[in-house]
Fold this sequence. Notes:
Distance between the termini: 21 Å
Largest sheet: 18 strands, mixed
Strand content: 35-45%
Radius of gyration: 20 Å
Number of helices: 3
Number of strands: 20
Shape: globular
Amino acid sequence: MPSAAVAILLIVVVGAGVVSLSGLHLDRGGSSTSLGTAGQDASGKYGPAAPEYGSLPVPSLSRNADGATLAPGDLSYAGPVTLIWDGHLDLTATSLPVFRYNEPTASTADQFASSVGAAPGPKTVVGAIGSYTAGDRIDLVVYGSVAQPSREPTFVMYEVKSASAPVGDPVREATTYLAAHSLIPSWPSQTVVQNVGATTRVKFLRSFEVPNQGLINLVDGAGDRYGIEVDLVAAQPRVLETGPLPLTLDSATYPIITVDQAIRSALATSATSTGSTPYPVVRLTKAELVYKLVWAGDHSFYEPAFLFTGTFVDKGVTRVKRVLVPAVGPSFLSP
Length: 335
C-alpha cells in the first residue's frame, strides 16, 4: 500500500455521545466505485434492510447516524460539552499498521454464499450486493461497505434452528451455528453475552493483534466494540447471524501522533458556552488505542485511533462522552 495512495481528510461528527475526528481516505491513483448504502428511516435509524422473515428482532442492526447501536436507556450524550483531560495515557509506539481491504464484488458474495450452502435467491434487497437462500433452511443477504456511518462488508443470515445445537449455554449454541458454516472468527475476539428482552445476543468482539502492542480493540463510530453477533430467541424457529464478511487484509505501517498531540486534538473539540446555561463539564479520564473503519470507496481501511472517554452527571443520571481522534501522523492528512 504505497504512501502516495493514502490521504486523510479530517472531519468532525458530533452525535450520540461521541465526537469523531475520522479519516476519509482518497486513492489518488485509482477511482472510487458507487456503493450501495444503507437507508435512513423516519426515526433516523440507519442500517441494512433486514429480510422479512417472521418477527425475529434485529435490534443490533438499528443504528443512529453516528453508528452507535440504539438501545433502551442509552446513556451516551450528544450535546456540546466543555472537556478537561484528567487521565494518563502511556504510549511507546511511534508507528502502527493500517489494514486495507478491497471492496468485494458480486462474485465474492456468491463465493461466500456457496461456502455456507446458499445459492442466489429470488428476492432483491435494496443496497445489497447479493441475496441468497438454501430452501427453507437459510436466508442470506450480503452488503457492501457503507460510507456513513462507516461499515465494512457485512453478511446477515437467518437459519432454521438445529435440534442438535446445545441449549442452555448461549455461547456454545452460538459457536455451534458459526462453526457449521466455518464462520468462527479467524481474528482475535472476546465473547460477551447480552440479554435484551427475549433476545440473547452472543457477540464475538473483534481485536487486531499488533506487534509490540498486543491486542487492540475494533470500535464503531460511537466507540462501541463489535464483531460477529448471533441472536437467539427461545420462542423463534430461526437464529440470526451477522458480522463482517471474511476478507483478505493487506497492511502497511504508518507514523502516528504523540500522546500530547492526541490529547490536544481531543480537547480541541471542547465547546465554549455562549448563553446563560453553561455546557456540561466532562473530565476525560480514560484513553486507549483502538482501530476504526474508514470508508474509501473501492477499498477501505482499518486505522488506529485514540478513544477518549469521560462521564458526567446530568439530572441525576451518569452520562458518557467519547472522543475519537485518528492516530495516523499529520503528514498523511489531507488539507
